[in-house]
Design brief:
With 202 residues, the protein is an all-alpha fold. The chain has a domain of 76 residues. Helix content is 77%, strand content 0%. The chain is built from 7 helices and no strands. Helix 1 packs across helix 7. The longest helix has 43 residues. 1% of the residues are buried. The model has no long low-confidence stretch (mean pLDDT 88).
Length: 202
């Protein structure tokens, strides 16, 4: 077995979490709470360092008055707990966060998943099978979502091709997710049987 204390803690926590496969028990619950607690503590310290380095220090030492805006908005989030009579103020901060987050997400999504896909499909020379397949799947999928007229004849065939292109994409995404989860599982087993029990060497 490994003499390293960190490996012991890692392996024992891994086995403790897997005990939930039998049934819910105190061991698995303690491990889950430990995981959530460590994650919450880490996020709290990360948030503190972010506010300190990105907002407070520039405001206090460099005179960047604009950094007061995120600080004030952050403090407004706590009015619901500290000042019950001013609990409506926290909606201002929440509204700003939702609006800014939505704008950033939409911009990134439109650029990467929509405009980037179309640009990539029409700008690449159709000289290879991959380029032709990407172009056909992109166009057929767009046609699938055209509801302004009935799909008949060739358009119906192309629309059906777009449907199957989406099914293949969804299946590939699902398979990629399962593969990622399986990779995490094999990584945990590698810690238990390889690093901890030393049943094999990598």
């Amino acid at each position: 077995m490994s003499p390293d204390l960190g490996t012991w803690v890692n392996a024992i926590c891994t086995l403790a979490v897997f005990t939930v496969l039998y049934r819910h028990n105190p061991v698995s619950k303690v491990t889950e709470n430990l995981y959530v607690g460590i994650g919450a503590g880490y996020q709290l310290m990360l948030a503190y360092e972010t506010v300190r380095n990105k907002a407070w220090i520039p405001l206090a030492t460099k005179g960047e008055a604009k950094m007061a805006i995120p600080i004030v908005l952050g403090l407004l989030l706590f009015t619901n707990y500290v000042l019950p009579k001013a609990r409506e103020w926290n909606k201002i901060a929440i509204a700003v966060m939702v609006a800014a987050g939505t704008a950033v997400t939409l911009k990134g999504t439109m650029e990467a998943d929509f405009l980037g896909q179309i640009r990539g499909a029409i700008s690449v020379p159709l000289t290879s099978f991959d380029a032709m397949l990407t172009f056909i799947c992109t166009v057929s999928t767009i046609i699938y979502f055209l509801f302004t007229f009935s799909m008949k004849g060739v358009m119906a065939t192309v629309s059906r091709l777009g449907y199957w292109a989406m099914m293949v994409a969804f299946g590939a995404g699902f398979g990629n997710t399962i593969g990622g989860r399986f990779a995490q599982f094999t990584g945990r087993m590698d810690v238990v049987f390889g690093e901890w029990l030393k049943l094999y060497t990598r």
